[in-house]
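User: Reviewer 2 asked us to show a designed sequence for the structure in our supplementary figure. I'm pasting the structure tokens here. Could you produce the per-position amino acids so we can include them in the response letter?
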């Protein structure tokens, strides 16, 4: 199970890096406007118009892989042992968690605010 989770993390990492690279290589919609005034930036790696279709489809594929890997990691994170019959809310609380006893009644609970004198107890009244 750990090998599969490591593989999904690797797929997510590669998809994220590829998506970042593909987005940075693409030119914006305003790049053609600048090319008409003589900047010459439209003649990029894939040509002026041929790159939009290939790069946008590649970005969509990388985004889909990233999304699927994220969903798989969320599933594996909520099912660490592979038991699919219980919910997160049904699992027992860990034994190392500190437990605090609730007071028997609200009247018996006295809250001490730092810096103020201690309240008089009910027995001294």
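Assistant: Here is a per-position design you can include in the supplement:
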């Amino acid at each position: 199970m750990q090998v599969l989770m490591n593989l999904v993390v690797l797929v997510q990492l590669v998809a994220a890096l590829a998506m970042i690279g593909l987005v940075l290589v693409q030119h914006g919609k305003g790049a053609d406007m600048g090319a008409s005034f003589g900047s010459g930036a439209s003649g990029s790696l894939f040509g002026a118009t041929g790159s939009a279709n290939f790069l946008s489809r590649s970005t969509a594929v990388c985004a889909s892989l990233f999304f699927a890997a994220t969903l798989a990691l969320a599933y594996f994170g909520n099912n660490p042992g592979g038991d699919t019959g219980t919910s997160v809310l049904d699992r027992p609380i860990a034994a190392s968690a500190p437990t605090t006893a609730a007071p028997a009644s609200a009247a018996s609970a006295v809250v001490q605010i730092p810096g103020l004198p201690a309240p008089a107890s009910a027995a001294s009244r």
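For the response letter, you might also mention the following. The chain has a mean pLDDT of 75. The first helix runs from residue 2 to 25.
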